Amino acid sequence: MRNRLFLLLLTLLSTSLPALAAQPQCDVTPVDSSLPDSDRAEQLANRAFACLRDGKPLQAIALFSEFIGLQPDNAQAYLNRGSTYVSMGQFDAGFSDYSHVIELEPSRFEGWYNRGSARVAAGHYDAAISDLTEAIKLKPDVARAYCNRGLSFLRKAEQRMALADFEKGLDLQVDMPLCYYGRGEIELSDGAYSEAIDDLSRGINIKPTAEALVYRATAYEQLGESDKALRDYRSALSLSPRFKEAQTGLARLTKSNKE
């Protein structure tokens, strides 16, 4: 079966949005230059988080950048800006910021993990494996690092390594849908359709994706369970109406049922 990248279920790590008594506004006007640098930096950070809350990442990036101008050695600021860039699909800018985190604090898990996970999303699998391996050395008990590295191995057709990572991730944390999806994809390619359905169903029950539903529909088709396959193709299209593989599967089974 042709490999298709699942919707990546990685979590980029940054500062959680602070819960402040008086919520700041997303405001990019200049901060009072007469204030001490520490106070200006705090205002900039709070405004940036407010912009993220309001769904305004470009404004948040501008504010994080101004913060970095005041505190160029602040690794957390680069981490936050990098995660914002990656959320917008601006991977090169995100990689650059995460590299700054690693340069400033090489023993910080989040720098390696975020850069590696972003590289998975960008399809840079060798570099992703290298980064995530460093992250795992720093924190060997973080399940999502194994799931994301496993996906990189899977896309490089290194199924044995991928399966080991997926199983390690699930040993550490049972509610990791990407690990279930990856293991299910391997089982599907090996013709273990019932096992694939079990794993894909576990992932779907946690966080459904159109890709996972199409894979499960394919397994149901192989077992001759057309009604279940049709249901999954329709569910996939409800999540992603232009998903070509779901459209093709639905049309194929609908035509077959009419004949």
UniProtKB/TrEMBL annotation:
Keywords: Repeat, Signal, TPR repeat. GO terms for cellular component: cell outer membrane. GO terms for biological process: receptor-mediated virion attachment to host cell. SMART domains: TPR. Residues 1-21 form the signal peptide. TPR repeats lie at residues 75-108, 109-142, 210-243. The keyword Electron transport does not apply. It holds the Pfam family TPR_8. This is Uncharacterized protein.
